[in-house]
Amino acid sequence: MKGFLIALQFLTIIPVKKNLTANETDIAKSASFFVIVGLFQGILLIAADYALGTFFHHGLVIGLLLFLLIISNGGFHLDGLSDTFDAIAVKSSASNANNIDVDIQKRLSVMKDSASGPAGVTAIICVLGIKYLSLQNLSHFPYFVYYSSLLLMPLMSKWTMVFSMYYGTPARQDGLGRIFIGNIRFKEIAVSTLTLLLVIALLSILFSSFMPVSHYFFYPVLLVALYLFVRASVIFFNKKTGGLTGDILGAISEITEIKFLLMAILWSRLFI
Questions:
Q1: What is the mean pLDDT of residues 235-245?
Q2: Residue 210 sits in which domain range?
Q3: Which pLDDT tens digit goes with each residue over 23-66?
Q4: Going by C-beta distance under 8 Å and a sequence separation of 6 or more, which residues neighbour residue 197?
Q5: Which residues have CB under 8 Å from 186's CB, separation 6+?
Q6: CA neighbor of 226 nearest in space, from 269, 258, 270, 194
Q7: Tell me, what's the pLDDT at 225?
Q8: How far apart are CA 255 and CA 216, in angstroms?
């Protein structure tokens, strides 16, 4: 229970016990519960869609769902996305090893700056726009496709965060991200993956009469694609920023949600 409360405190704005004490080891172990926090967020989105759909047009409902997701995260994933893209936008100044280190430090400095640059603002606008249009598109498919996408979207993003922490190395020795990055063990990976697979299995069993047959193949393909995305992201940021930071984890979370939604649309168009 302690690990879950720590994960809830780290990933959402939901208030937890004020007297909750935890050391760095406890915080790192809480990654096992990230996917469960994502499940709660997914259930919240479905409940909100049902409640708001009684009063508002569905296009407005989707906008409100995205706002609810941002609020529940405290907006820090989008903040990380913005800072990360501002850092990536820093132009490389040279090709020799010394200047590469200088470039990395410049990017980390930009990432730490609280002000958002044009690249960061553009990234936020594009991500929110793509999410909105993707959910609009998915709403035209069978109900199972739309509602399962709402449920699984935050789960997938939390799952890739845990894998990123496992494979990544910290780019700096300060910040909360350092506690997780490189300190995740195989146990956290196994628990997160088993939790995600259990949710998918329950969906497949409980809603088998509504679930398109093609989705039995979609989920394995999806998980492999997201795993490869994590490995590629870690390699990319090792070159650009010398490792991962908390901001980069937020960016990976946001981009994962887009990849998931786009893959759900593509698969549904091809096989439903």
A1: 94
A2: 35-271
A3: 788 889 999 999 999 999 999 999 999 999 999 999 999 999 99
A4: none
A5: 166
A6: 258
A7: 98
A8: 24
pLDDT at 13 over 60: yes
The Cβ-side half-sphere exposure at 160, using a 13 Å CA radius, reads 31
Separation between Cα atoms, residue 8 and residue 174, nearest integer Å: 22
Residue 10 located in a structural domain: no
Is the torsion defined by CA of 170, 74, 219, 64 positive or negative? Answer: negative
In a domain, 27, yes or no: no
**What percent of the chain is predicted at pLDDT more than 90?**
76
Burial 178-204 (b: 16+ CB within 10 A, else e): bbbbbbbeeebbebbbebbeebbeebe
Please check whether residue 235 is in contact with residue 229, taking contact to mean a CB–CB distance below 8 angstroms: no
In order of 55, 56, 57, 69, 122, the CA distances from 50 in angstroms are: 10, 10, 12, 15, 31
Q: How many domains does the chain have?
A: 1
- Cα angle: 97, vertex 167, 174; to 5 degrees: 65
Of 2-16, 71-85, 95-109, the range with the lowest mean pLDDT is 95-109
- Say if residues 254 and 157 touch (Cβ distance below 8 Å): yes
Structure tokens of 44? 């919240």
